[in-house]
Amino acid sequence: MKKHLFPLFLLLLGVNAHAQQDFFAIVGKDTQSITFNDFRIIDAANGTSGEKIFSAGSPAKVFSQTRKGIVAEDKNTYNNSQAITLAALAYESSNNNLVYMPMFSSNIYILNPQTKEITLIENNTARVTSCDINSHITRMATGYNGNIYAVNNAGTQFLEISKKDGQYVVNDLGIIKDDSSNGKNSFTAMDTGFGGDMIADSDNNFYVFSASGNVFKVITKDLKAKFVGKIAGIPDNYSVNGSAVNAQGKVVIASAKGGALYEVDLTTLQAKQLPGEQGLHIYDLASKYFVNDKATASNNFANIDIYPTKVDEHYINIHTTKNIKGNIQLNIFDMSGKNVMTQNLTVKDNSSDERVYLKGLLSGAYMVNITNESGKAIFNKKILVTK
Question: In angstroms, rounded to a whole number, what is the distance separating the alpha carbons of residues 30 and 141?
Fold first, then answer.
């Protein structure tokens, strides 16, 4: 199970355009065991707490997707939306929801932070039993394709949670095995690979940060976990229980033991302590960012941008400033790389905004690519179409 991660909730990532390093988190009570306290927003730039979104004492309105109605839950079990053993969290940016699972339960919950309504996804795909720590879901993240992914301690279940025709669907993608080069640093062993959290990259692969501080890269196409290294610069007894990516592409980690937050460079695995609160028991972190995001890395063009990136009204605006004039071409690709839309535009002024309607695009993640007259790419950015 999430080793040492027993105080539970961390916080969720905020969607503030000016404070883009905010995270969502599951935060726990100050106890030696996992005891859920609240979902909270944390400003990862200065390590301080923000709004408490939903807590152990909040009234819970739970809608069952299977039973198509409101259900009453037994609060004295591990199988409810406010169970004390919450330890896996992801941010569903397409709908601005929080997705989470109790450690000792197969139930998946979708929390709307605004309305506080909760959708229960009952499924037979996740095989979690309270007495088997190998089966406990302790790592969860949003993939670059917009789906939610979760992995149990032993890597024997790699779950994909997607949405089809308005319903959440759960699939088991298989067993994650150790790469042959891992040696004693096994992804599937308790001391070296259990617990922690995970993040995604722009190729829809994942990095798992185990509670011990070991980092593994999970290649989704062959379901192999390759040992990357161990985080340096954190205390010897630091239990890594939450991880998420900030706006700069750095990883922020947090501990269920109440330690400080650290920023980790994924290239060197060197950690740097962040300022702010040090007494929070954080069990999982979630954000909307990805490591090695090509869209972010290539957007060093201060003269062009698009907005909004969360599209719910069937259009985006192309904003240009100085040095952008003449003919440009906008291409939109889905996450499989298929070109689903092309439009030619003419920029007449040094500073202008052009509205482009997205015709026929289904809900999901897309990449917007803009090229100049010579065909050179001058802009790339990811958008999420929600309606």
Answer: 25
Pairing of strands 137-142, 148-152: antiparallel
Residues 3/190, Cβ–Cβ less than 8 Å? yes
Residues of the chain with pLDDT under 50: 1-21, 297-301
CA dist list (Å): 312 to 53, 125, 144, 167, 342: 23, 31, 19, 19, 20
The pLDDT value given to residue 106: 97
Phi (first) and psi of residue 133, to 5 degrees? -65, -20
Hey, what amino acid is at 348?
A: K
The pLDDT score that the predictor gives to residue 12 is: 32
Give which of 21, 157, 298, 29 is closest to 8, Cα–Cα: 29
In tens, the pLDDT along 338-378 reads: 889 999 988 876 667 889 999 889 988 888 988 887 777 78
Tally Cβ neighbours within 10 Å of residue 44.
Answer: 29
Contact 210, 216 (CB under 8 A): yes
User: What is the DSSP track for 97-115?
Assistant: EEEEEETT---EEEE-TTT
pLDDT of amino acid 4: 40
Domains and CATH numbers, the chain: 11-292 (2.120.10.30), 296-385 (2.60.40.3080)
Could you say which DSSP state residue 133 is in?
G
Q: How far apart are CA 4 and CA 62, in angstroms?
A: 30
